């Protein structure tokens, strides 16, 4: 029976955005860990009765940090629902828009959230483990690059999709408006800057992280390693794609477990319910729910940037492909199960997103006027799937003859990783907290790093802004009296203008 | 030097888009930082709830509160921040009018739980487990906030001084409001910090006072780029919606969704929009009018109250509702941490 409880409130105890409880046993080791999501909004229910075409705009309100992902998954579900194939220009515009979003979002994560641990080191003083510290360490010009990358991304998203937050653009069979030659030129120019930014970011990662043996050991340590299945969307050649493709799942040993059309997701994914959280736990149906354990007999899977690279055979653009090979060579081949390598994979995806953005911006069809076809068939049922930055995102709708929703199912990005995040935190806590362990700032940060690698956006479940997650750890005596308290986190340094 | 003011930014049931929009004021955030100490903001600074509890009442100068109130925890935070703040601003659509998550007021908690946890097409839950406010899991005691039947706006929970509409409020409007606060020239309490005009006044499309014989769904027609969308039969919320965004959606050939809420002086968004649509219908025959509405507007609740159901005169689907809600344990103060 647990005698001590260590509460790690990602935000704070009562703020409703996710909370970790670590229960210690008599021996001072970790007895059990619970990551609770204390909020629900019920989109699956209240969207019933709404016109299906409202879904891109209704579901974008699931998350204001990644509204583009829900907007796009919903738009694709409408294509399927109305059985209408968007013309090539529409498909390309959507994928380009989506790559701009991906590059922008991954930039935020790496520089504001996950990166400072590496650039500054996990044991650096907390006031340095933030973007300010990063800037001081590697130079002021980086701040300018990061801000420019984010500002460019947001400006283009508004230019193409109508609004920077909650765009209003996707329709069954295409998009509401195309782009002009002038807009295309600007998108291309900023895309080329983004490719340079992606290269620069990987060089920075190599120099600071990979050039330090301690960090490499940390990445490969047991505390941050567990062997689960991995999921990602792949194109016809099994290369990573964010916008469209087949869903591929590989086992802990890297062999293919499944490769399926998004429409068949229910044959492969099921969701488990626990009474102590408002969020469900997806798992692989054919393997089954075995609780919070890893290995080939447990149906837990991850859907993260690293998972996408593990599940694919390569990247579809040349620079990203080189980086892909480099990462797997350095970490001992595929698949890689070290959670912290997710940061590296995220930067490779950033570079891919930027390269693909330029490819599409220079495609002769991208300024075509044929960006929309009107549906003519009766709506029945549709599934739309994209890779959100934080995992595979699935929207599934059923309607009546008039296109009024009768049933809705959503499996959102971070949710896929709920059980693995749980497992990662437990593993890190078990490895790091043992009898007599002094609970230090650095130790807390190392536990926090276990879930920060996933970039968990419980905005898709609850929500938090990419930024530093303040934490409190309270150690309680058997009678519940707090005997020790540590706080860490604090201001993230300068806020990041989008 | 004048002492810095104390600013709090809080999120309840919201999507995070309001925070993203605040950051979009870009370098002006430095002016805000120069004028205010950010004393509470879970996404940015490490002040805990119990620190806020320890502050004297009225010691926070301005609190920007986004998100609606849907759980016991959010209700507690709304009350706490009301007590601690001199000026409480309902920030964004969720806090001011309930926003899209407020459409949950067309359902009940039980229906939501059944749909999500028991009947989900991919849910594997033979035991019919649903989350509970209190559970014992292998002897470990765990709690969750109580999930209410009804989504409430901030103003339905505690008295609010100002509201700033929009989903999310556009960055220039956020800056306008901050300047008004910084220069201490806020309008009388109760005011909406926003424009007096409508989205139509900001929209560059030409209107010809043309009437329509049928409403069209957005997937049924490719609208002409320069003409009024409503006059092309699309349900555009522009005539009923407060200006402030610059008519962004019509610029990408999509109708206004109404995210900026009712325009000045209008209590019920849906009522205003219905009257605007009614005056666009080209018929005097009651039967024909009825047919045009029934065929063209298959989801009146979701169309007229997409963002504003929780704050509308309707508020929610009828149930014996709030009686039932009060059978639930009243929200308690957070467990003290020391």
Topology diagram in text:
The complex is a heterodimer of chains A (498) and B (338).
Chain A (H helix, E strand, L loop, with lengths): L3 E5 L10 E6 L5 E7 L6 H4 L8 H5 L7 H15 L6 H33 L10 H8 L1 H22 L8 E2 L2 E2 L5 H30 L2 H8 L8 E6 L11 E5 L5 E5 L4 H4 E4 L8 E4 L16 E2 L2 H7 L6 H13 L11 H20 L19 E8 L2 E9 L5 E7 L1 H4 L1 H15 L8 H12 L18 E6 L5 E7 L10
Parallel strand pairs in A: 6-11
Antiparallel strand pairs in A: 1-2, 2-3, 4-5, 6-7, 7-8, 9-10, 12-13, 13-14, 15-16
Helix pairs in contact in A: 4-5, 4-6, 4-7, 4-12, 5-6, 6-7, 7-12, 10-12, 11-12, 14-15
Chain B lengths: L4 E7 L5 H7 L5 H7 E5 L8 H6 L5 E7 L2 E3 H13 E7 H6 L11 H10 L15 E4 L2 E4 L3 E6 L9 E3 L6 H12 L16 H4 L45 H4 L17 H10 L7 H11 L3 H5 L16 H7 L11
Parallel strand pairs in B: 1-2, 1-3, 3-5, 5-9
Antiparallel strand pairs in B: 4-8, 6-7
Fraction in beta strands of chain A: 15-25%
Task: Give me the side-by-side strand order of the main sheet of chain B.
Answer: 2-1-3-5-9
How many domains of chain B? The number is 2
Q: What best-fitting shape of chain B do the alpha-carbon axes yield?
A: globular
Low-confidence stretches of chain A: 10-16, 458-473, 476-481, 486-498
Computed over alpha carbons, the radius of gyration of chain B is 22 Å
Rg of chain A over CA atoms, rounded to whole Å, is: 22 Å
How do the strands of the widest beta sheet of chain A line up side by side? 8-7-6-11
| Mean residue pLDDT of chain A | 85
CATH topology of the largest domain in chain A: Cytochrome-c3 Hydrogenase, chain B
Biggest β-sheet description of chain A: 4 strands, mixed
Can you tell me the CATH topology of the largest domain in chain B? Rossmann fold
CATH architecture of the largest domain in chain B: 3-Layer(aba) Sandwich
Helix share of residues of chain B?
25-40%
- Indicate the CATH architecture of the largest domain in chain A: Orthogonal Bundle
Helix content of chain A: 40-55%
Largest interface: A-B, 104 and 92 residues
**CA-based shape of chain A:** globular
Q: Tell me the span between the first and last alpha carbons of chain A.
A: 48 Å
Q: What would you call the quaternary organization?
A: heterodimer
How many runs of DSSP E, i.e. beta strands of chain A?
Answer: 16
